[in-house]
Request: fold
Amino acid sequence: MNASNTPLTAAEIKDKARELGAHLVGIADGAQMELYPPDPDDPRRPSDITERDGNRVIVMGYHINSATSRLPAWNHQHKFYNDELTLTALEEMALNLVFWLESRDCPAIVIPANMVNTDGPDIDPTHHQKPVLSLDHAAVEAGLGTLGLNQQILTPEFGPRVKLISVLCSADVEADQPISEALCQGPECGRCLQACPADAVGHWQRDWDACDKYRVPYGFVPTMEFLEKLLSEQDLGTKVSMLRSGESYQLWTGIMRGAGVITGCRRCHDVCPVGADYETMIGDALKEIAENSAAKTERLAEMAAASLLADSPGKGYQSRWIGKLPA
Ligand code: SF4
Ligand code: SF4
Reply:
């Protein structure tokens, strides 16, 4: 059902999003996202958030600033801080789009990329928590790009160097179509795998538990581990030293600002050669990949050989979001 009494068009919504600052904007068909959840065994669909206002998923992106991508260390504090600022700006932009949509009689709701369920019997915060809606997959449905070797969104403009947010509504407007050809260059490129400090990049998949140790280095799990160590320490002097340590300070600043809690490693974004920004803004700084190894090179060669098989991982259900790979 379209709750809007005032006719809206897709072009008007996109113009408004761009006027509010969005670098990228696309509109996904909620019905397609209902039919094709990223993981059918654990579907996370618009209808799991709202039964009424999820017929359209407006996906918007900000380009992350290039100077931070040019910093080679995965854990450079300026990456964490600048990304946190980008996410804050995205949230404000999305909320303003919601206000605008609702002023046009169209109920709407902001869903950020990192929102997870915090209640329910199956919650286990010591392992990777999937977001309530995968915005990387939604961005593909909205025609913004295709997924890469480690399931990161790749866009023609900025490769994976984007932060995403979404707005759900049921405006009766035209949805975009996914890009059909894969943007990812596959294991023959493999720079994301070479650069990953967690060695979490698989063949069109990712070890999310391993990734999270770097992607959210000051998140819930490291905070709980630190507190457990602190509580079990018997010596008062050691306890006080732990409280005043650099580790404690990092966790505190993370809680205060979100830097390292909702931001963290994105080395796989930085080194990816896809995106018009790569050659002009980034490539000269990231030619060498210090984290590469002979074992990683060997694994990529095995993946490249496996890619030729008819049942290779990129050619099954996930090909909807990976796109058509070169024969
Ligand atoms: S975010 Fe970091 S740890 Fe996770 S896959 Fe990318 S490079 Fe690896
Ligand atoms: S770095 Fe290469 S393999 Fe990885 S996502 Fe980008 S294009 Fe694909």
User: Anything to note?
Assistant: Strands lie at 24-29, 56-63, 108-112, 146-147, 153-154, 162-169. Residues 1-218+258-327 form one domain. Residues 77-103 form the longest helix (27 residues). Residues 127 and 209 are 6 Å apart (CA to CA).
